[in-house]
Design a protein that fits this description.
There is one protein chain. The protein is an all-alpha fold and about 280 residues long. It is built from 9 helices and no strands. α7 crosses α8.
Length: about 280
């Protein structure tokens, strides 16, 4: 949906997919169930690298900066939290960018209803090989700038929003630590993340999927898209993105909470004097 009507004026844009449910039905009807799971392998690798870096680097970075600037590693500060969220997200974006590139091109290809530039790869390995053969390492990192902006935006608000929502719900609603609090907080975080992340996500998809040099960079793509298709073109596909990011955020943050609790229990048994419980989690 983000590629639909790319650089075509309003009124001249084809609408093969009228919404998320219609889009799914069209793909399944023409390509079968496998059509909606195209690029799944690349998506797994990308998410492992992205979220491994985001969640893995966030707390050490936050604790280190808080210790350096506030003389207290356990103290929470919105500015530090956002900076570390963005920083850890940038690391993850660079690590996973080649896999997101191949995933985008695999998912954009359709032999029945082609939308945007089409790249015919047999699978993820073939896609990586073709890109490397034609463009080298630089080709695998095409659009990495947009990926860094996208993930930096999302990561800078995801964890800070989650912890802020937890504090507000605990203080003003009276919710106690547990699954309902984690669910409510992660839902709020997921919605905010989608609002911030979707415009650069649209730009990134177009940069990744382009053939040749249709766009010179992030801002050239942004300018051309808005001038040709209008401002709300950068929010194309918002509902499908929200439908993906909400459960993703809820599962990621809720499981991270439970994993950290489990690890702290083990640490407290092995190291009774451990200060592991004083983290941002």
């Amino acid at each position: 949906m983000q590629l639909q009507g790319e650089l075509q004026s309003k009124g001249h844009q084809p609408h093969h997919y009228r919404g998320p449910f219609h889009g799914v039905s069209v793909i399944v009807r023409n390509e079968g169930i496998r059509g909606i799971y195209r690029g799944l392998g690349c998506a797994y690798v990308y998410q492992i690298l992205l979220n491994g870096c985001r969640l893995g680097f966030y707390e050490p970075m936050r604790h280190g900066l808080a210790s350096l600037l506030l003389n207290d590693g356990a103290k929470q500060n919105l500015g530090i939290n956002m900076f570390c969220g963005a920083g850890s997200g940038l690391i993850g974006a660079v690590a996973g960018s080649p896999f997101f590139l191949v995933k985008t091109r695999l998912q954009s290809y359709s032999p029945f209803l082609p939308v945007g530039t089409q790249h015919h790869y047999r699978n993820a390995v073939d896609g990586t090989r073709q890109i490397y053969k034609a463009e080298g390492v630089a080709g695998l990192y095409r659009g990495v700038g947009a990926a860094m902006i996208r993930t930096g935006f999302g990561s800078s608000v995801q964890l800070p929003t989650y912890f802020f929502a937890k504090r507000m719900l605990t203080k003003h609603v009276g919710m106690e630590e547990g699954a309902p609090l984690h669910l409510a907080s992660s839902t709020a975080s997921g919605f905010v993340v989608c609002c911030f992340m979707h415009p650069p996500d649209t730009i990134m998809s177009r940069l990744y999927n382009q053939h040749g040099n249709l766009y010179k960079g992030v801002f050239d793509c942004l300018g051309k898209t808005i001038r040709t298709e209008g401002f709300f073109a950068i929010y194309k596909g918002f509902l499908p993105h929200l439908a993906r990011i909400l459960p993703h955020t809820i599962l990621t943050l809720s499981l991270a909470e439970q994993t950290n609790k489990f690890v702290r229990k083990i640490e407290q048994r092995i190291l009774p004097d451990s200060e592991s419980g004083k983290t941002g989690w």
